[in-house]
Design goal:
This protein is of the alpha/beta class. Helices cover about 35% and strands about 15% of the residues. The chain has twelve helices and eleven strands. The strands form two sheets. Strands 8-7-6-9-10-11 form a six-stranded parallel beta sheet, with helices on both faces. Helix 8 (about 195-205) runs parallel beside helix 12 (about 330-340).
Length: about 350
C-alpha cells in the first residue's frame, strides 16, 4: 500500500490551504496512507480527516539545525513512506527532500512560481497577471507523484457541531442574527486595515448582526477587548480557548471579513463567503481563499499606488505607501457584506 508524507510546516494560512487538496486526495484514494508533517498547533485544522496521521516538528528544540533535520529525516524514514510531497519549498524541505531522493524515495516539490512572482512584485515593468492559485500548485505535486486529483471535484463538508463547552462560552450571543466573523489583524502592517476604519465597520455591522472577532496575542486581544466592551453584539473569539473551538464557530459563520491572513483561508475551507481586504498584497499573487468570489476581493487603489502588489506577504512598504488601505472605504466593505448576508443563514442549522 502507498504511504505519502506531506511536508508543510508554516504559515497557518498556507497550511490551511492544503485542506481542499487533501479532501480530493482522500476521496480519490481512500486506501492511501497519509502522514502530514507539520507543527502541532496546526493539528485542529485537519480534524475532519480521521485516517490521516501526523508527525509533528519542533524546530526550536528536537529538530533544530542540521542535526535536528537529520533526526527528523530518520524519524520520517522509519515511517516507511513510498512518496514524499514537499508543499513548502524552503531550505528545510530542500534538505529533507535531498535526503529522501538520494535514498531513492519518489519525491516532488511545489512550484512556487518564483520567476512569475518577481514580475508581479517588481517596481518597474510590473506584469499584473494572476498566478496559479497555490491550491492548484499543491495538486500538481500529487499529480506528479502519480495521484491524480482535480480541485474541480472538491466537495465541502458540513459545518461542525458546536460543542457544549463552546455553547456555554458564547451563551448570550444572538442566534437569531447573522453571524459575521471579522479578523482585523495580519502578520504585517502592509496588509492590516487601519484600526479606526475597522472600528467603524464593526460598529456598523454589530447593529443588526452578531459579530465574532478573531485574534491572538497580547496586542490583538487588547484591541478586541475594547471593541467587545464598547458594542453590544460583539464577542471576542479569543475567549474560546482553542483553535478547535474557534473552528467550530468559523465553520458556522454566515460571512468572514479578513485581511490577507489565515482566518480567511480557514473560513473558506467550510464554504463560508470570505471578503478579503488587500493592502500591499494582491489576489493575483495566488493566495486568495479557496473558491473565493472575485467580487469579494477588495483591493487598495492601484491608480494611486501603482506599485501594489509589492510582495507576497506585505513586508515591503515603499515610501509613501503606509496608508494604502485607507483607499478602501469601510462603507464599501459593509455594503458588500450586507449583499452577501441577504441570502445566508448558515448557523441557524445548529
Amino acid at each position: 500500500m502507498s504511504h505519502i508524507l506531506v511536508l508543510r510546516f508554516s504559515s497557518m494560512g498556507d497550511v490551511a490551504m492544503i485542506v481542499p487538496v487533501l479532501r480530493c486526495l482522500v476521496k480519490n484514494y481512500p486506501d492511501l496512507e497519509i502522514t502530514l508533517v507539520t507543527k502541532e498547533i496546526y493539528g485542529p485544522i485537519f480534524r475532519e480527516f480521521k485516517n490521516i496521521k501526523f508527525h509533528y516538528v519542533d524546530f526550536k528544540k528536537q529538530h533544530k539545525g542540521i542535526k535536528g533535520l537529520w533526526r527528523l529525516f530518520k524519524e520520517l524514514k522509519r515511517l516507511r513512506p513510498t512518496h514524499v510531497a514537499d508543499l513548502h519549498g524552503v531550505i528545510r524541505t530542500y534538505f529533507l527532500s535531498w535526503l529522501f531522493i538520494i535514498n531513492l524515495f519518489k519525491t516532488k516539490r511545489v512550484d512556487k512560481q518564483r520567476s512569475k512572482r518577481k514580475k508581479l512584485f517588481r517596481k518597474k515593468n510590473k506584469i499584473l497577471q494572476p498566478l496559479t492559485p497555490i491550491q492548484f500548485k499543491y495538486c500538481e505535486v500529487f499529480n506528479k507523484l502519480g495521484f491524480n486529483i482535480e480541485l474541480t471535484n472538491h466537495e465541502f463538508i458540513d459545518p461542525f457541531v458546536i460543542n457544549d463547552e463552546t455553547q456555554q462560552i458564547i451563551y448570550g450571543t444572538k442566534n437569531n442574527l447573522n453571524w459575521v466573523g471579522i479578523a482585523p489583524f495580519a502578520s504585517f502592517n502592509g496588509k492590516t486595515y487601519p484600526l479606526d476604519l475597522m472600528q467603524q465597520l464593526i460598529a456598523f455591522l454589530q447593529r443588526d448582526h452578531q459579530v465574532f472577532l478573531f485574534g491572538n496575542g497580547e496586542f490583538e486581544i487588547s484591541k478586541l477587548e475594547i471593541w467587545e466592551k464598547a458594542y453590544q453584539n460583539v464577542f471576542g473569539a479569543y475567549k474560546l480557548g482553542s483553535l478547535n473551538n474557534e473552528l467550530e464557530i468559523i465553520s458556522n459563520l454566515d460571512i468572514m471579513i479578513s485581511m490577507d491572513s489565515a482566518n480567511g483561508h480557514l473560513a473558506a475551507n467550510y464554504n463560508v463567503p470570505v471578503i478579503v481586504l488587500w493592502g500591499l498584497t494582491h489576489p493575483f499573487g495566488g493566495f486568495a481563499p479557496f473558491a473565493s468570489n472575485p467580487e469579494n476581493m477588495i483591493v487598495s487603489d492601484r491608480s494611486m499606488f501603482p506599485k501594489i502588489p509589492t510582495s507576497a506577504y506585505g513586508k515591503k512598504i515603499p515610501k509613501g505607501y503606509e496608508n494604502v488601505m485607507r483607499t478602501i472605504s469601510y462603507k464599501d466593505v459593509a455594503e458588500r457584506c450586507l449583499k452577501i448576508l441577504e441570502s445566508s443563514k448558515r448557523h441557524q442549522n445548529l
